[in-house]
């Protein structure tokens, strides 16, 4: 069976609290691990998307509306829906590892670094489709 979830692949979460949110695969574990004996992926996604901005808004309001609230999670493959899109994530690869989820402070640090990367990418205008919520 071909590998669908390569690092950088964009997917949609199907189950749970973040259902319907876009995520980017950071690391895939096709065989699973001892504590998680099922195929899963470490993903980073957007919990709260940036809001719409207009030309008449001031700099402070523009900055506040351009914030992104990210999340990192370990998700079973059966709860992910792959898309044909991919993101270049050279800066994300080192920020999240399997050990990150054991300690809450490490998890917070990883989330902050991902937030910085996502907001930077949003400000530059790269991958605009990733920062817009899905419309059903």
Main sheet record: 5 strands, antiparallel
Output the radius of gyration: 15 Å
Tell the overall outline.
Answer: globular
Give the tally of β-strands: 5
Strand order of the largest sheet: 4-3-2-1-5
Residues in helix, % = 10-25%
Give the topology string: H per helix, E per strand. EEEHEEHH
In DSSP terms, counting alpha (H) and pi (I) runs of 4 or more, how many helices?
Answer: 3
> Would you tell me the overall average pLDDT?
86
Which structural class is indicated by helix and strand composition? alpha+beta
- State the distance separating the first and last CA atoms: 31 Å
Residue runs with pLDDT of under 50 for 5 or more positions: none
Strand % is: 25-35%
Oligomeric assembly? single chain
In words, what does this structure look like?
It is a single chain. The model has no long low-confidence stretch (mean pLDDT 86). The chain is globular. The protein has a five-stranded antiparallel sheet, covered by helices on one side. The two termini are 31 Å apart. Strand 1 and strand 2 form a beta hairpin. It has 136 residues and is of the alpha+beta class. It is built from three helices and five strands, in the order E-E-E-H-E-E-H-H.
What would a concise description of this structure say?
The chain has 136 residues and is of the alpha+beta class. It has helices at residues 59-65, 90-93, 104-124, and strands at residues 9-13, 22-29, 40-48, 69-76, 80-86. Helices cover 24% and strands 27% of the residues.
